[in-house]
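Quick start: what a row looks like.
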Amino acid sequence: MQKKIQTTYLSYRGGRIFNGIMDDLLAKGMANATNAILSEGSAGGLAVILHCDRFTSRLSPSARVKCLSDSAYFLHDEYLMGDKLFDITFEGLIELQGSAPMLPSSCLEKQIKPSLCFFPQYILQGIMTPLFLIMSSFDRVQQLCELKIMVMD
């Protein structure tokens, strides 16, 4: 008797969720907003960086829009992260979720690999909306990076 293999199909719909939430909020009055801010922390803070201009484009051209990203500045630097943990993670996101089309074209046009567009140092110069970055010295990931630097020195 052969064992039946169970297959699971995964769907990632972050872009659709973003658009659905925006549609709902715009219908509830956000279309008339004169001021708006998009803010989140950690992985969500990275999403703020990635979607800041997309958020702005959904609002009235007269709206004053700002974005605030907290604890999401992951550096692409072999000296800090010699194990390339973030490279592997972000390449996996591109491969598994097919997320490259949701990345800002201003970054994709300049980078060899789409996964580099998950690193703020490569994407920030293309963002048109005012974006504020906060990086806590108590961020666990940053503490581990700092620890590696101190050990290497």
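That is the whole record. Residues 14-152 form one domain. The mean pLDDT is 84.
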